[in-house]
Automatic annotation (TrEMBL):
Name assigned to this protein: D-ribose ABC transporter substrate-binding protein
Domain Periplasmic binding protein: 30-283
PROSITE patterns in alphabetical order: PROKAR_LIPOPROTEIN
Gene3D superfamilies attached to this UniProt entry: 3.40.50.2300
Keyword Signal listed: yes
CDD domains linked to this entry: PBP1_TmRBP-like
Domain of life: Bacteria
Amino acid sequence: MKKYLSLMLLFLLTMACQQKKTSEGPKKMAIVVSTLNNPWFVFLAENAAAKAKELGYETKIFDSQNNTALESDHFENAIVSGYQAILFNPTDADGSVVNVLKAKDAGIPVFCMDREINSANAATSQILSDSFSGCVAIGKFFVQQLNKKGNYVELLGLVGDNNTWARSKGFHSLVDNYPNLKMVAQQSADFDRNKAMEVMESILQAQPNIDAVFCGNDAMAMGAYQALAGAGKANKVKVFGFDGADDVVGAIKDGKVAATGMQFPKVMAQMAAVYADEYLKGKRDFPAKIPVAVELVTKENIAHYTAFGKK
């Protein structure tokens, strides 16, 4: 019995030392983003990291490269490396759920930024742009610009991202009420500029007589514009984007792009970092979803905006 009690005491002392070492270790937050191949997500990640550092945390940004398998590796790395919270921009609404649950099982809170996962109780909170409403506003402006008639193309983002469908549905909820506006092509370009240019070039061969292109993000809008410029149609076809990226803000000023939906990634990133800090300090009551408003940006009001937000 004495030997047993001695072993138990040794075990408890060891555990206490380990807990003390953990509590005295560096405070760390991981920032896992879908891709760093898009300036918008770079801005989101850097602002999340900056706010976390301001709150006293060490940070590391992980690039999933739009690959759920790589994203899974990042989560496992964050868990075993002692990160206390994960600020997360998901790769896939369904495929990313398992990674968030893995962190939850390890006692690590996950705060989603911009992109949503299809689970009501996996993430601690999801801070999301109101993409649907933002694209209703774009749809209304689109109808006005085309005088309620014409042929148009839609470039969709990643098919596994809920934002892709929220934006498309918001746009169509208004535009589809006008029978003389006809969508002659709809194709995914994965939110990627180069792919959008290639897709648009292919579409123009089959549908040379179009009046507008609605794109699910600004990277695709710029890719579509490049394709139109290469075909000598840039002055005849109106391009509409979504994000509020730097190059599109400039393109709106120059009259190359008609409009975009301004998201506020800095707001989402900073909110995620603050919420994670509050969680680690004991707070547990967080909204499941927090919508962040999107604002319509056109040449008429572009003076009030800069890249990724208001001046």
